[in-house]
Design brief:
The strands form 4 sheets. This protein has a 7-stranded parallel sheet, with helices on both faces. It is built from 12 helices and 13 strands. α6 links the parallel β5 and β6. The protein is globular. 49% of the residues are buried. α7 packs parallel to α9 (258-269). The protein is an alpha/beta fold and 338 residues long.
């Protein structure tokens, strides 16, 4: 269940709740009446930013903590449900600095699990993992039985975090549902650089009237997932204790090429220049090509299916950026950095 009846009054903590997906989840849960606490280290480059929560931040308790180095806050140990969106999603940066990626995407996860074990706390944990654990698909669509072959340190550390979750679930009876999210886009996605998703970055260039470079001609196809659908999946998992121990692919069943994605955005915005460009060598080494998800496990275990069409999702996304101050350069620079 994802409605008010499922969430009113429930104690919820969102780790990484000032980031792109986490902030959208936080605002939805607050609207549903949940008792939401945000925990975020606001680690530079990881996507967390106060602006993502600006509309309702006064109503949402906020604890600044980087679980890789700081103590796990008491609110986490007291929660009924913990949505775990910790870490850094930047693939190229994980190649350039794998030790940093290890700290943010694995050390922090082990610290969380150890704190829960020591406290004897057993919240339902929804762990946001990634489709990148599969690497380049051997078959399409990709289901949960597909071989694991991460293409970069980010995928390795994300999968290792999943395996720690499986271990702690088995040894200490921690209920953990793992969601492998695909290419999520939508409001509050960073669009000033490519670290947090190619779609956000390219939409930012479109909004700033800068040429949009379609690497490889934008021919590769992905199951672009609007963040509202991703939030629905997270909420469904947060009410599905019976799915604990499972890994569930979360994606759209209607793939589209990057060119179709950006052409649709350009047409909705009414302006923009698209240019073909070769894939840079650093991206070519870790690119996985075409990817889309078999969503049937999510339908069976969570009663969830992506509902938002590409055109509708892009319309909502562009509306957010165009009506929000500084939306074309999101998130806006922090006061301390200006």
């Amino acid at each position: 269940m994802t409605g008010v009846e499922a969430w009113r009054g429930r104690g919820v903590v969102i780790l990484g709740g000032a980031g792109f997906i986490g902030s959208n989840l936080a605002l939805r849960l607050a609207a549903l009446g949940a008792a939401v606490t945000i925990v975020d280290g606001l680690v530079p480059g990881c996507g967390g930013h106060p602006a993502n929560l600006a509309t309702d931040r006064a109503a949402l308790p906020f604890v600044r903590a980087d679980l890789a180095v700081d103590a796990v806050p008491a609110a986490v140990l007291e929660a009924e449900v913990v949505f775990d969106l910790l870490g850094d999603p930047a693939h190229a940066r994980s190649v350039a600095d794998p030790r940093r990626d290890l700290t943010l995407n694995l050390v922090a996860q082990v610290a969380l699990l150890e704190a829960l074990r020591r406290a004897g706390a057993r919240p339902l944990i929804v762990l946001a993992s990634t489709r990148s654990v599969y690497g380049r698909p051997e078959r399409l669509p990709v289901d949960e039985t597909h071989p694991i072959a991460p293409p970069d340190p980010n995928g390795i550390h994300k999968f290792a975090a999943e395996q720690y979750a499986v271990l702690y679930g088995r040894l200490y009876d921690l209920p953990i549902v793992r969601l492998r999210l695909t290419n999520v886009y939508g409001p509050r996605q960073g669009n000033r650089d490519a670290a947090h998703g190619v779609t956000g970055f390219l939409l930012g260039r479109l909004l700033r009237d800068e040429p949009v470079l379609l690497f490889g001609g934008g021919a590769f196809r992905r199951d672009w997932l609007m963040v509202d659908d991703a939030v629905d999946a997270l909420l469904a998992a947060g009410s599905a204790a019976e799915a604990a121990g499972q890994a569930i692919n979360i994606g759209h069943d209607r793939p589209a090429s990057l060119r179709e994605f950006m052409t649709t955005a350009r047409d909705l915005l009414g302006r923009g220049e698209l240019r073909d460009a070769p894939l840079p060598p650093d991206q070519r080494a870790i690119d996985v090509g075409d990817y889309w998800t078999d969503p049937r496990t999510g339908e069976r275990l969570l009663g969830w299916r992506a509902e938002t069409s590409l055109r509708d999702g892009l319309a909502r996304t562009l509306d957010f950026y165009t009506r929000t101050p500084d939306g074309a350069r999101w998130p806006p620079p922090s006061p301390s950095s200006t």
